[in-house]
Amino acid sequence: MTGKERIIKLLKKEKIDQVPWVPFAGVHAGKLKGYTAREVLQDKDKLVESLVEVKKLYQPDGMPVVFDLQIEAEILGCELLWAENNPPSVRTHPLAETKDIPCMCMIPSKEEGRLPMILEAMGEIKEKVGEDTALYGLITGPFTLASHLRGVNLFMDMIEDPEYTKNLLTFTTAVAKAMSKYFIEAGMDVIAVVDPLVSQISPRHFKKLLHEPFKTVFDFIRENGALSSFFVCGDATKNMEPMCLTNPDSVSVDENVDMATAKEITDQYNIVIGGNIPLTTIMLHGTQQDNMKYVIELLDGLNHDKLIIAPGCDMPYDIPIENTIAVQQTIRKPEEVKAILENYFVEQEDIQIELPDYNKLRKPFVEVFTLDSVACAACTYMLGAAMDAKEHFGDAIDVIEYKYTEKESIARCKAMGVTNLPSIYINGKVEYKSIIPSRQELFFKIEEAKKELE
């Protein structure tokens, strides 16, 4: 059975021979050939060359062609901030100061932005590896695209102007359908609707505002002959059932979600679940044995029916090649790996972290714990909310971001008891975890914190 057959049969709920493996090697693919993130996301030849290397080294059953949630936003007028080791992030939001709804004539065409390059790359990689590897086309989900256009104001809109929010989501849903169609026509087997911000809202808001857009997109993908995945980041546990009710073929989650708990829900709805190898603590900073151990424990703790093993999200650029190979080998030969790990013990790094004396602060201290605000959309908007507060309060407050990609920040998270990313702490107390606050709500919390310090 080829990897492609394995993925397609699994998503169609047919029996397969072993658990599939899907490495989400986005810009990390470029690292394999010595290309920067900017190069691999702008140059077709370098992208295809890097993807062929992913196939060669990691032997995936399925793989994405591009992992960039800014493709649509860039075409629609968002300015991007480019990085060498991360996908770009959205710098400006064209609807930040207006409640206009874009005209349907603004839906991206195949000729706009980087789409011609991407579609051509899809065609080439389809010819090179598509016969035995399932190819994933990743589109930006309706909610995250709406946030790219509107910025952090979207979270206030959901409360104060749900009708406007629905109208904006109608437009971004139409964009998602168009992108799905382009990618299906380019030969993609699975369309992954990637929407990190879904983890940042309540089930009530999901059911009220997001159920119909997502169901519309998944129905459209199915009607056009492809399979689908609902891809989320952060602690989406509270929204697992609402997500399943939108009827995707599969769901993909990250390390913030307990796989056993989530799989109980997806199994009830006969939906495949994929995930959730930790990106930083295991894949980036761990050893080969750490990666093997995590995957073995994941496999041992789950029913293998309707299961895909994958990184929790887009793989960081600098993940050691040997760590990803170790994951692949563990999935293929778990019993052999168990023998290798028989006498292995995890070594804990002793990084000393000095926490502030929160009882002696002179002004409110806002700490934002993120995976990485450059690489993670949910983290971008959580930090954006905090920086909006900084702009409003000025020197009356302090704001700092701690990125989980850094070992010191991982140690700080442990010392602080941070359980979810992204999170906002004010004066040492968690105020928001996996929920992006509205401007008004966050300002109120900061005002309260100021009074407590007086």
Descriptive notes:
- The protein is an alpha/beta fold and 454 residues long.
- The protein folds into two domains: 3-340, TIM Barrel, CATH 3.20.20.210; 358-453, Glutaredoxin (3-Layer(aba) Sandwich), CATH 3.40.30.10.
- It has 19 helices and 13 strands.
- It has helices at 3-11, 28-31, 37-40, 44-58, 71-75, 115-129, 142-150, 153-160, 162-185, 203-223, 240-244, 259-268, 279-284, 288-300, 321-332, 334-340, 377-393, 407-416, 439-453, and strands spanning 62-64, 80-81, 89-90, 134-140, 190-194, 227-231, 250-252, 272-277, 307-311, 365-370, 398-403, 423-426, 429-433.
- The chain has a seven-stranded parallel beta sheet with strand order 1-4-5-6-7-8-9.
- Strand 2 and strand 3 (89-90) form a beta hairpin.
- Helix 7 (142-150) crosses helix 9 (162-185), helix 14 runs parallel beside helix 15 and helix 17 crosses helix 19.
- The longest helix is centred in the middle third of the chain and has 24 residues, at 162-185.
- The protein is globular and about 70 Å long.
